[in-house]
Amino acid sequence: HIFEEVVYVLSGQGETLVWQNDKPKQSFAWQEGGLFSVPLNAWHQYRNTGKSPARLVGVTSAPVVLDLYHNSDFVFHNDFDFADRYNSEEGYFHRSRYFRYEGLKGVNPDDLVSIETSHVQDIRKLDLKLFPRGEGNSYAFLQMADNVIAPHIAAWEVGVYSKAHRHGPGSIIIIIEGKGHSLVWNGDVYYSKGKPHHRVDWQVGSMFVPPLYYFHQHFNTGNSPGRYVAIAWVGRKYRVDGLGTETHVQPVTHIREGGNQIDYEDEDPLVRRMFDEELKKSGVKSRMPPVKYRDPYGA
Ligand SMILES: [Fe+2]
């Protein structure tokens, strides 16, 4: 099919066979925690090699592609090989490399984990680096299979929450470790003044999507680290203007400087109270630094 797909393995184990027209077939094995992408329009077939059912979740560019071509024959029965992305090279699904990702304004590329790959065995075990999204918050950025859609993986230490931010469309979040909640709201900097404003409680396997340009803020309220994978429209090598590029390239610039992130000092005091209440229920001590609130739009 002529749309991209990134797959996360929720449970089980198996194998995917991949091939293009008359070129040699290749296969790779996956298991719980794995993340992979079959290159665009390559044939692929899944096989469960374990003793229990396997469960996979895929994030694709299908809705936009189907809207663009409105011809399912073209999208699903098309024998074009995108050889510039994948040319049946041996070992393709067993290699990855670190690269220098310079696409984020205000973030030093040396402080980022950026990996080009088509398959990570277990993203729950991937080493991340602290990222200026908030206290005890770390990230890794992936570029997979020369796609435009791309995942990043983020984790929170125990007793912390990240700063709120907002951006372009279609950033699909799958929780892979921990327990907590996220606040999702529109408009005002203050969560409680957002129209609408929602709280999303999550655990391993939860999936949600902050709507276009809605603020969202994640809180780890459990007694273990939390982690998610988010697959969004902004690749590290390729992008589609209008699908989030403008906001994703400056992810940590504060709203008062024209960016889209809210510092702790500027947030609705209610959000920390909600966090502290949830921590109390879990018997977890907050590791957040004390905060002195200020007017978010003040000088
Ligand atoms: Fe986000």
List the topology elements:
Layout: E1 5-11, E2 13-19, E3 26-31, E4 35-36, E5 43-48, E6 55-60, H1 62-69, H2 72-76, E7 96-98, E8 114-117, E9 119-120, E10 129-130, E11 137-144, E12 150-156, E13 164-165, E14 172-177, E15 180-185, E16 197-202, E17 207-208, E18 215-220, E19 226-232, H3 245-248, E20 261-262, H4 269-282
Parallel strand pairs: 8-11
Antiparallel strand pairs: 1-4, 1-6, 2-3, 2-5, 4-9, 7-8, 10-11, 11-12, 12-19, 13-20, 14-17, 14-19, 15-16, 15-18
The structure holds fe (ii) ion.
Can you give a write-up of this model?
By secondary structure, this protein is mainly beta. The protein is built from 4 helices and 20 strands. The chain has helices at residues 62-69, 72-76, 245-248, 269-282; strands spanning 5-11, 13-19, 26-31, 35-36, 43-48, 55-60, 96-98, 114-117, 119-120, 129-130, 137-144, 150-156, 164-165, 172-177, 180-185, 197-202, 207-208, 215-220, 226-232, 261-262. Strands 7, 8, 10, 11, 12, 14, 17 and 19 form an 8-stranded mixed beta sheet that branches. The structure holds fe (ii) ion (FE2). Fe (ii) ion binds next to loops.
